[in-house]
Write a structure and sequence with these properties.
Blueprint lengths: L1 H31 L1 H5 L1 E2 L17 E6 L5 E7 L6 E6 L3 E2 L5 H7 L4 E6 L13 H17 L7 E7 L1 H10 L6 E5 L5 H8 L15 H4 L7 E6 L7 H10 L4 E6 L7 H20 L8
Parallel strand pairs: 1-5, 4-6, 4-7, 7-8, 8-9, 9-10
Antiparallel strand pairs: 2-3, 3-6
Helix pairs in contact: 4-5
């Protein structure tokens, strides 16, 4: 009997040890390359950087961060601007990959300021979660220092990873409103979605905890999410929406994926953004 138990134990261990070893190795590799999983920057000079070829009134801008980096962005003025849109883009590419959407946003009555986080495009440094939070604060403070937008409000538009940066920024600076597109609750929930059979969420260092931070805000919120988002499921966007304080709105774009809300939504998408901007235009910025 003892011999049989030993054989069963030995055979079980022969099966389990390689499995456990592979699981551990996989977790270690993911943790080691965590930043590479979270951030996908494309640096200068890949792409079209000559703004004179883009048929947009782009002003090249540089501004500092509190930890001494110099970041690069584009300011696109609008003569009839009622607000200034601070655009925090997603985790891949850089600002030149948002050109098509930038052209569409020219129909909104607002100035637009889009910039690259550290390590993206022409911005210095390497990306990190805390670093991106500093970058957003630096961009906001730069806008507030400009004499040409003092009379307009600042509305923060965060896409995907940028939505988490936007929520964090709103806990540190007063914003007239937040537009959160393809948003999510936190990094652990995203890890569960990305690695459903791998317990990576127990070990990752990234937080991006919008679910906790959004409860601190009284800022008007406008959520946008594609019903067919293949990267951040709409359920995570709705979960963040449910955690938020009033006033908040949720706009679902049927048939849209992760990166094409403005394409699938078309004019209705722009009209919904315009309505939100109109509802907050001229109103005092709420205290946090």
């Amino acid at each position: 009997m003892k011999t049989s138990l030993k054989k069963i134990f030995s055979r079980t261990m022969v099966f389990l040890l390689p499995l456990a070893g592979g699981l551990l190795l996989g977790i270690l590799l993911i943790l080691f390359f965590e930043n590479n999983v979270v951030f996908y920057p494309i640096k200068y000079s890949e792409g079209i950087w000559n703004t004179s070829l883009l048929e947009l009134p782009i002003e090249e801008c540089t501004f500092p961060t509190s930890d001494g980096l110099k970041l690069h962005g584009w300011f696109v003025p609008n003569e009839s601007a009622k607000a200034t849109l601070l655009w925090l883009h997603g985790n891949a590419g850089n600002i030149i990959h948002r050109l098509d959407q930038l052209r569409k946003f020219r129909l909104l009555e607002c100035n637009i300021f889009i910039f690259d986080y550290r390590g993206y495009g022409r911005s210095e440094g390497d990306p990190s979660e805390d670093g991106l939070y500093l970058d957003a604060v630096g961009a906001y403070d730069y806008l507030k220092s400009r004499p040409d937008i003092q009379s307009t409000s600042i509305v923060v538009y965060g896409q995907s990873l940028g939505s988490a940066i936007a929520v964090d920024l709103a806990t540190k600076r007063n914003c007239s409103g937040l537009i959160l597109e393809a948003s999510f609750t936190n990094a652990k929930d995203m890890a569960k979605e990305m690695f459903p059979w791998f317990p990576v969420h127990f070990f990752i260092r990234s937080r991006f905890d919008s679910e906790t931070k959004i409860k601190l805000l009284n800022t008007p919120l406008f959520f946008v999410h594609g019903s067919e988002d293949e990267i951040i499921p709409i359920t995570l966007g709705k979960k963040l929406f449910d955690a938020a304080n009033h006033p908040q709105q949720f706009y679902k774009i049927s048939g849209a994926g992760h990166n094409d809300c403005y394409v699938v939504g078309g004019m209705e998408y722009l009209q919904q953004l315009t309505l939100f901007l109109e509802t907050i235009s001229g109103k005092p910025i709420p205290d946090q």
